[in-house]
Every structure is written in C-alpha cells, then in structure tokens.
Write a structure and sequence with these properties.
By secondary structure, the chain is an all-alpha fold. The chain is globular and about 35 Å long. The N terminus is likely disordered.
Length: about 120
C-alpha cells in the first residue's frame, strides 16, 4: 500500500481509508472531475493513452501528484464507466487497457463501477 505524504493540501485532504466506499463520503472535486471526464470519454470511445494524459492534467489541477498510485482515482474511473453505461465487454476492454495487468488497479475500477449510484 502506498501512503500519501502531505505534498499538497489537496492531496492530504483527500486521503481516506482504503475500506471506504463512495457511499460513505462525498467525492472530492478531483474524484467528481475524474468520474465526469471518464463518462464523457467512454461514451466517445477514445484512445486509452489520451485518456491517461488527460487524467494527468485533471490530477495536476487538483494537486494530485501521482494519480497512477491513487486508489480513489481508479474508483472514480469505475464510477465514470458505470455512468457512461458501458457494456460489460466495453468495461472489461477498457479496464484491461488501463490497468496494464495490474490486478489491484483493475479491482479498484471494478469496485467504483459496482458501487456507482445512478443520479
């Protein structure tokens, strides 16, 4: 597990226990932006590499220095895929490309996908 240091107030204010679920807490502005962007991106069926570059820009805006190691970001991506209404196959394909065989990241995306509450 990777502990986040207080590199920025935004990063430290959004740390939460790994066991928390989206229903326990309000999503941070970063997480909301990631969810919304992921939903838009998935609907447009874009390139995963472009998606990752754009996530880096979103993270930078919110003071998240390493989104690739941030559990909440992966959960927000899962919520965005659910929000987009991605098919099971589309979801699997996207997660496979995004997680690059990292089972922890894939599990976090799946967790976000499964816990998304339709507004």
């Amino acid at each position: 597990s990777i502990e986040r240091s207080s590199k920025s107030s935004a990063a430290s204010s959004r740390s939460s226990p790994k066991s928390s679920t989206p229903s326990d807490e309000s999503p941070s502005p970063h997480d909301r932006d990631v969810t919304d962007y992921t939903a838009q991106f998935a609907a447009a069926e874009g390139d995963v590499q472009a998606f990752q570059r754009d996530l880096s820009a979103i993270a930078e805006r919110h003071g998240v220095t390493d989104w690739e190691q941030d559990d909440a970001t992966y959960q927000a991506i899962g919520r965005g895929l659910a929000k987009a209404g991605l098919s099971e196959q589309g979801f699997q394909d996207f997660v496979t490309q995004l997680s690059n065989a990292n089972q922890t990241h894939a599990g976090l995306v799946k967790s976000g996908y499964e816990t998304y509450d339709t507004p």
